[in-house]
């Protein structure tokens, strides 16, 4: 005879409805942060009103204005940079990227062209009418880089370089702050707070992937960070699907996903001849890949209430001069 199994009653899990739980809405997402962190908010449902941030004359980033910064990992030569600038401008990027000071994992790898690279980058941007973003690694080089760039980038490896953050906080240029590969959201926001404390409130937060355990991708691109950051800060959030994945064929799908997650911009590596790139060739888009990415992004953006427009000025010289 079959034994009658007593009903276990409702599972404790079935009884817990996190959304209806009275404690859910009042519970902070993270431990409260000490007073004075004015960029940050703590309650889950509070969505700070995202602000439009002027990047330079004729170019903003914000809830309606999308930033597409593209170009090679590193400035390698005048020819390579000029063809990069021409191809990204023709495809529809509104900012040119390129590293002159490269934070390479190995001291034996190409370290960038330094000051010469900055000049090449600025001139290439000028020729195609695009402002430029480039990385600064050392507080002693901030003034030099600021003479050439419209936006100053802090690389992942330097997210907690406090003297660098403080120095950037004293500049009158926007700062593109990349998330450290092992940084929590709170550490990331605190790094932004170091910049703001010195007076510079023009900060773009960039999710670029965090360290995972699976070598299938270079990093784990944390797209949930986009809405989390937006729930805690009014700063624009952009995504770098190139470093975040490390593989060219993954860049377009993750760029689409980043736009759908609400990103205000993308930072994408593109190279005229990726097989010859001196750094990060495997993740660099080819010219035709990049054109396709722009076409697809342009179709998606209106659904998110955003547009991608070129800088509304004729001369980059004017753009960069007016940014100071
Ligand atoms: C870069 O964008 O050039 C770069 C070095 O990226 P990350 O700092 O994210 O590694
Ligand atoms: Mn790179």
Q: Per DSSP, what share of the residues sits in E-state strands of 2 or more residues?
A: 5-15%
Considering the protein shown, what is the CATH homologous superfamily? Aldolase class I
User: How would you classify the helix and strand content by structural class?
Assistant: alpha/beta
Distance between the termini: 87 Å
Sequence of strands across the biggest β-sheet:
3-4-5-6-7-8-9-10
Low-confidence stretches: 10-32, 315-324
Sum up the structure in keywords.
324 residues; alpha/beta; TIM Barrel; 8-stranded parallel β-barrel; two-stranded antiparallel sheet; 11 helices; 10 strands; 33% helix; 12% strand; globular; disordered C terminus; binds phosphoenolpyruvate; binds manganese (II) ion
Short description:
The chain has 324 residues and is an alpha/beta fold. The chain has 11 helices and 10 strands.
